[in-house]
Amino acid sequence: HVIDDVTIGKVLHDHRYDRVADVRTAITNALSQLSEILDARGRASIYSDHCFKPPQQTPEERKKLREEEIKRVREEREAAAEKKKREEEEEREREEKERKEKMEQLLRRKELEKERREEEESLKEAEEAEEERKRNFLTRQKKEREWQRDKEREKEIDNKWGVEADERVSEREWDREEDWQNGNSDQEWEREREEQRRKKQEWERKRKEDSPERDWERRKRNEEELDRNWREEKEKKRREDERERERERERE
Where is the segment annotated Disordered (predicted)? Predict the structure, then answer.
């Protein structure tokens, strides 16, 4: 026999089949293939009494088996391609998700950095405004003291020249009585009065020269107007800066 017990035992040993059904199927397929080859060469049948006869397959059955095998292979390939496509799609989705997360983190960091800068600028502006308010307050106090000193000085000057003028008027009244008693003419008295008016004008001029700060109220109004204009300009600049920051946020 071409296929003897030793050969069958060797096949069983080499392939190490786990189940009896697998062994029977393998032997049947091998015998069927060998039988077809030997029959084609005109050899005698190799089956003996102790071998089981494999089922005979018609050409239609073999064709059907081949078609099923082709279909199975095609389905396996399609399944493998579908699996690969699904894995690639999942990989793309994962990469897209990671990219979006990174972009969101980057935008969030930028937003936090922008908020931090705005907060620092706001604090800086508040500190500058507080310092400016303190300086203005101290300057205002200093100016108030200067204005008060000017007023006191004006009052002292007015009192000084007023007292001297009153004293001179009294002296001239007394002199006039003496002139009448001494027989001096009214023309002399008129000349004295004219001289007195001239001296009074001279006193007024000298008083103004001694008091160049007499227009302190006007200066005070001017300084208040300058302060008001400065505050308006500062507020205008603050609004312009705020609009510029808003436009920058819209561009981002």
Answer: 74-136, 166-252
Tokens of 101: 């997360």
Name residues whose C-beta falls within 8 Å of residue 45's C-beta, 6 or more positions apart in sequence: 35, 38, 39
> What percent of the chain is helix, strand and coil (3-state, nearest 5)?
85, 0, 15
Tokens coding 37: 């080859």
Q: Indicate if the pLDDT at residue 93 is higher than 90.
A: yes
Question: Residues near 65 by Cβ (< 8 Å), separated by ≥ 6?
Answer: 57
Q: How far is CA 192 from CA 64, 82, 184, 187, 198, in A?
A: 157, 131, 12, 9, 10
- Write the DSSP string, 87-121: HHHHHHHHHHHHHHHHHHHHHHHHHHHHHHHHHHH
Report the Cα 170 to chain-centroid distance in Å: 83
Structure tokens at 237: 């600049």
Element (H, E) at 186: helix 186-210
d(CA 42, CA 75): 39
b (16+ CB within 10 A) / e for 165-198: eeeeeeebeeebeebeeeeeeeeeeeeeeeeeee
The residues spanned by each domain of the chain are 1-56
What gap in Å lies between CA 86 and CA 89, rounded to an integer?
5
Q: Is the pTM of this model over 0.70?
A: no
pLDDT tens digits along 153-190 = 767 766 665 555 555 555 555 555 555 555 555 566 66
